[in-house]
Structure formats: structure tokens, C-alpha cells
Design brief:
The complex is a heterodimer of chains A (266) and B (380). Chain A has 266 residues and is an alpha/beta fold. Chain A contains 7 helices and 11 strands. The longest helix of chain A is centred in the first third of the chain and has 17 residues. Chain B has 3 domains: 109 residues, Orthogonal Bundle (Butyryl-Coa Dehydrogenase, subunit A, domain 1); 112 residues, Butyryl-CoA Dehydrogenase, subunit A, domain 2; 138 residues, Butyryl-CoA Dehydrogenase, subunit A, domain 3 (Up-down Bundle), CATH 1.20.140.10. Helices cover 52% and strands 16% of the residues of chain B. Classes of the chains: A alpha/beta (266), B alpha+beta (380).
Chain lengths: 266, 380
């Protein structure tokens, strides 16, 4: 059994966000981090490895400096890393990215009991599209917003966390899961892991490596293969501070009803 | 000469810093205020390999080096002097002498549990009448068949109340002077061994500092560490290594104080200006940073020499002497730049100032370091 985890290096948006004059993110001036949800996906895979001894392959599409992120994931306990890197892949939107990552997963190979994990979404784009699109392109069952994973024989049973409740879903393997932060608390790298991480295998897949895959065509990857057009980027206005009402008695309910009525909600 | 850290060391620093910021810093004020030993942090550090950084993997260590260990103590001390000394005393003063002088059986028995943090280590040399003059040991060990009987007491022992394994020194032949001192590995549950009074301290208040009492303490014959009569040599060699740990602790405390001062002086406004805009502040911080940078070079150089199995006694003594005095000076200046707020426990610099003072005293006072340095220079 192996688990392929797709990860992305993103600019740290928790600090100061730098924006170019055209409204796009100025990635170069912000520190690069592992996308937080992707780290949860890696931790989920590591916990399964702790139980089963399975192999973990981390895959990322990005420029050469993304290797440092992959090495950190190897130091956390992943076994192998693949960096998908090539000029032809530059400018890809979610459609083209998922096309390329699907091609990379085909190259690595999926067997019956294998799993593919992705983070729910990346903090730089917040689309939550790449994971589900990879599943579609590989004809894999998918479960998104996963907050709990139970392994069965040839299947997984996951709890999806949705805005208004939970949903428990069973899927046959191989399948793809997108993971959310509620799933776990990612572990730290270990000292021994850091000492070993540069000895673990890291392959670079470039255009030539993947070009024979039917998914990889000049017009399905990179800028040419990206149907997305960005009209404008902007910082959304901040939401106002919410009001907390204490208590569960009649008076608190009356107060709640009054304030809802005031806003014409009821 | 290349001052560039390896990519592994750079990554380790990021890991230590993330751990220190997330797991250690939030507890630092509470650990100090309540004089509470950070047991939960020790367990977490054990799982990450931070309790056996430079020992080989075959003995359960993480297989890194002495520099990686010094950097760990440094990053911990930036946020908590207590947590840093727990790692330093455990590693340098207990695991190291067992690794360097122990038999294969002793190494296999003790190191895996020490490196994993399952067992905590401590070191007992100091006695009421044998401090800097460690040759005046009153504790005695007498061979009785297949075991040693040890009698005496040790004071100011770091990690004492929580340690499982102790490296202890005792006189096996008083006539031989320092050549009559031997080292022993003592387990906490050996008959006749107990931990006495806990010291209430000025700084590093969360660390456990206690008396050790041995009353007809029965120690198996095979727990003699190193050769009979070589204890004093083992103690001095161990303290040479320990000084790298304390230099790193002092280094971290000073660097932590500089970081806090930069942050505070950029926020605090007086006379319509941020404190950082005053030339006095800029000059003070420039001096503080320069001293800590020099301390870092000395500490890292000593660590690299130990790793390379070169003679490093003078380097470790210079690193500890300079880093400890620099840290005390820098932390005191930090409190001054914070003004009244710096004197309160609302900010960490007063704790750093109290914590820094001990680095000039334990594992050899600054005066003892000067004696070592002068002796190495053949100044008699």
C-alpha cells in the first residue's frame, strides 16, 4: 500500500500580504511555507504509515526551490518525493495543474489499495479545485472535506465536515481524499528525520518525463491549457465582529429574537 | 574558513524554533512563576530526538552532531532558560560521559532510554565542601563483594527530582587524592539513594535543583563508569562538554533578550518617537547583538572542535565565559531599555536577566573558566 500526497509551497499569508500592481500576489517577497491543509494531508498519511507501515510519496508541482519543502516533508517521515518542474508547466491554473499532477500520479502508478491525499485548498488561491479535478481526471472516487479516516479492506470510510453538519462516506480504493485542518495536528520534523531527509529519494519529473501520458498535451498544460482568466484580485472587506449572547434562558432568547428582528432577519 | 551552516543545520534550526515558539514559549512564564518542571515538554522533546541529538543511532540517538545539539539548547533558551538547561544537563552531563566512558553493556543499557527521553539524566559532582574545588570530594565508595557501598551527599544537582539515572563521583581511595576519585552510574531506585531538599532559586526556577543523599547506597560492581580512579578526569572532561551546553544556553538567553528588545522598542513611543528611533537605543542594540554574535561564533567553534575530536577545553571555557557574561550584560541592558515595564513580569526580559546570571556560575564559574583558559596558555 502507498499513499501519494499532493502538496504545494505557498506564500505565508498569515503575515504581511504583498500584492503586485496588477493585483496578483507578490510571491517573491513573502516567506514560502507548506500549504497548511497539505500538511494535514501529510500527517494523515503518516498516521496511516505508523499503523500499517505503508509507503508515502509526496508530490509537488513548483519551481526548483520547492525542493526544500519536499525535504521537510521527508524529514517528517515521508519516504519519497517527486518534484514536477518544468518551464512548460508554468502559468497553469487549477485545470492544467490537476492535469499535470494526474499525469505525475499515473507515472508513479496507482495500485488497488493505494490512496491519494490532497489538502482541501491552498491559502494562496483558495479554490479547492485541484484535488477534485485530479480525481476526475484519474477516474478515481473522491471524498472531499475529510475530517476522519477509517481504513477498511479495499475501502475507506471518511467523515466529511460540511458547513451544516457531517456526512459519512464509504469509497473503494484507490480513491482521492481532500483533507481539512480538523483532521489532525501535523507533527514536527524529528532530528533524525532531518539528518536522513537528504538521503531519501527525490525525483524530478519534467515535461519529457510526463509527455507520453495522454493527459499531457501542449494545449492541456501551462498557460495554454489554462481556461481561467483573472479579471481582478482584491482583498475582501473585513467582516464585522459578531455579537455573542450568553445564556439559554427565556431572556437570552428574547434578546436574540429582538436583534434578529432589528436586522429584519425574522 | 566557511561560516555557512549545512542545509541540515538550517533545517534543524527551523524545527527547533518552531517547537520552541509553539510548545515552550507559551509555558515559560508559568514554569518560572510556579517553579514547575516542564515534564510534558521533556516527553515531547524525547519523541523528536532532542534528548539524544549527537549520539549514534545504534544507541538510540538522532545521529546528528554537537553543533546541532548546541543549536537546540540555544533555540530553547531564546524562549525558556529552564527548558534549555534540562536538555543541556541531561545530554552533556549524563548521556555524554556514559557514551564516552561507558562499557558496551552500559551504553546499551542506558543510552537508548536516555536518548528517547524515557529516562532523564543528571550529574552529581558538587558537594557542600567541593564546589569549584571538586577535588575535595567527601562522598566515599567502598567495594563490598559484588557491589559498591556509597555514602555521602551532593548538592545543587540539576534535574535531580525528575532524573532516573545519575553519574556520581566518589572517593574510592582517599590516599590517591584526585586519582582516588571514581565515577558511578546510579539509578534512582538503588537502595540507599534518595533526593533531598529542593533549592528555591533566583532564575531557571522551573528546573529541579536538589540535594542527593546516599546512605549505604548499594551500586552493582558493573556500574563503575570508566576505570577505577579515573573519576576526576571523567568529571573534568564531562564539564568541558557541558560548557558548550551552558554557553549555548547563555547565547540563547542573550539572543532572546535582543529579539524582545527590538520588538518592544519598535512599538513603545516616548517623546513622540518610537524608542527604536533614538540613537541610544540603536547603539545599545547594536552592541548587544554584536556581543551575542561573537558568543555564537565562540560557541559554535567549540562545538565543531568537540565533534571533530580536536582538543576543545580552552574553546569551551572561552565560549562559556564570554557567552555567560555577554548574556547577563545584554539581559540587564534589555531590562533598562524596557524601563519600568522591563522590571515587571508582564515582559520576559526580567526572567531572562535572572536566568542569565546562573550561566556565570554553574558548570564552572566565570573565574574557573579564566583558570582553565590561563592554564591552557601555560600562564603560571
Amino acid at each position: 500500500m502507498k499513499i501519494i500526497v499532493c502538496v504545494k509551497q505557498v506564500p505565508d499569508t498569515t503575515g504581511k500580504v504583498a500584492v503586485n500592481p496588477d493585483g496578483t500576489l507578490n510571491r517573491a517577497s513573502m516567506p514560502a511555507i507548506i500549504n497548511p491543509d497539505d500538511k494535514n494531508a501529510v500527517e494523515a498519511a503518516l498516521q496511516i504509515k505508523d499503523q500499517t507501515g505503508c509507503k508515502i510519496v509526496v508530490v509537488s508541482m513548483g519551481p526548483p526551490p520547492a525542493e526544500s519543502m519536499l525535504r521537510e516533508l521527508l524529514a517528517m517521515g515521508a519516504d519519497e518525493a517527486v518534484l514536477v518542474c518544468g518551464r512548460e508547466f508554468g502559468g497553469s491554473d487549477t485545470f492544467a495543474t490537476s492535469q499535470i499532477l494526474a499525469g505525475a500520479i499515473n507515472k508513479i502508478g496507482l495500485e488497488n489499495d493505494d490512496l491519494v491525499f490532497c489538502g482541501r485548498q491552498a491559502i494562496d488561491g483558495d479554490t479547492a479545485q485541484v484535488g477534485p479535478q485530479i480525481a476526475e481526471k484519474l477516474n478515481l472516487p473522491q471524498i472531499s472535506y475529510v475530517a476522519d479516516i477509517q481504513l477498511g479492506k479495499g475501502e475507506v470510510i471518511c467523515r466529511r465536515m460540511l458547513e451544516d453538519g457531517y456526512m459519512t462516506v464509504r469509497a473503494k480504493t484507490p480513491c482521492l481524499l481532500t483533507c481539512i485542518k480538523e483532521l489532525n495536528m501535523p507533527r514536527y520534523m524529528s532530528v533524525a528525520g532531518v539528518m536522513d531527509c537528504y538521503c531519501k529519494p527525490l525525483c524530478v519529473f519534467n515535461y519529457d518525463t510526463l509527455k507520453d501520458d495522454p493527459l499531457i498535451e501542449p494545449d492541456t498544460i501551462g498557460l495554454k491549457g489554462s481556461p481561467t482568466n483573472i479579471f481582478k484580485s482584491f482583498t475582501p472587506p473585513q467582516k464585522g465582529v459578531g455579537t455573542m449572547l450568553e445564556g439559554a434562558d427565556r431572556a437570552a432568547c428574547a434578546k436574540l429574537a429582538d436583534s434578529l428582528a432589528e436586522k429584519h432577519i425574522v | 574558513m566557511d561560516f555557512t551552516l549545512s542545509r541540515e543545520h538550517e533545517m534543524l534550526r527551523r524545527m527547533y524554533r518552531e517547537f520552541a515558539e509553539t510548545e515552550v514559549k507559551p509555558l515559560a512564564a508559568e514554569v518560572d512563576e510556579e517553579e514547575r518542571f516542564p515534564e510534558e515538554t521533556v516527553r515531547k522533546m524525547g519523541k523528536l530526538g532532542m534528548m539524544g541529538i549527537y549520539f549514534p543511532k545504534e544507541y538510540g540517538g538522532a545521529g546528528a552532531d554537537v553543533l546541532a545539539y548546541a543549536m537546540c539548547v540555544e533555540e530553547l533558551a531564546k524562549v525558556c532558560g529552564t527548558t534549555a538547561v534540562v536538555v543541556s544537563a541531561h545530554t552533556s552531563l549524563c548521556s555524554a560521559p556514559i557514551y564516552e566512558h561507558g562499557t558496551e553493556e552500559q551504553k546499551r543499557k542506558y543510552l537508548p532510554k536516555l536518548c528517547s527521553g524515557e529516562w532523564l539524566g543528571a550529574f552529581g559532582l558538587t558537594e557542600p565542601n567541593a564546589g569549584t574545588d571538586a577535588s575535595g570530594q567527601q562522598t566515599t565508595a567502598v567495594l563490598d563483594g559484588d557491589h559498591w557501598v556509597i555514602n555521602g551527599s551532593k548538592i545543587f544537582i540539576t534535574n535531580a527530582a525528575y532524573a532516573d539515572v545519575f553519574v556520581i563521583f566518589a572517593m574510592t581511595d582517599r590516599k590517591q587524592g584526585t586519582r582516588g576519585i571514581s565515577a558511578f552510574i546510579i539509578e534512582r531506585n538503588f537502595p540507599g539513594f534518595s533526593v533531598g531538599k529542593h533549592e528555591k532559586k533566583m532564575g531557571i526556577r522551573g528546573s529541579s535543583t536538589c540535594e542527593l543523599i546516599m546512605e549505604d547506597c548499594i551500586v552493582p560492581k558493573e556500574n563503575l563508569l570508566g576505570d577505577l580512579g579515573f573519576g576526576f578526569k571523567i568529571a573534568l572532561q564531562t564539564l568541558d562538554g557541558g560548557r558548550i551546553g551552558i554557553a549555548a544556553q547563555a547565547l540563547g538567553l542573550g539572543e532572546g533578550a535582543v529579539e524582545e528588545t527590538i520588538k518592544y522598542t519598535k512599538e513603545r513611543v516616548q517623546f513622540g518617537k518610537r524608542l527604536s528611533q533614538f540613537q541610544n537605543t540603536q547603539f545599545q542594540i547594536a552592541d548587544m547583538h554584536t556581543r551575542m554574535q561573537a558568543a555564537q561564533y565562540l560557541t559554535y567553534a567549540a562545538a565543531c572542535k568537540k565533534q571533530a575530536c580536536q582538543s576543545y577545553s580552552i574553546d569551551a571555557a572561552m565560549a562559556k565565559l564570554f557567552a555567560a557574561e555577554a548574556a547577563s550584560d545584554v539581559a540587564r541592558r534589555a531590562v533598562q531599555l524596557f524601563g519600568g515595564y522591563g522590571y515587571t513580569r508582564d515582559y520576559p526580559v526580567e526572567r531572562m536577566m535572572r536566568d542569565a546570571k546562573i550561566t556565570e556560575i554553574y558548570e564552572g564559574t566565570s573565574e574557573a573558566q579564566r583558570m582553565v583558559i590561563a592554564a591552557n596558555l601555560q600562564v603560571k
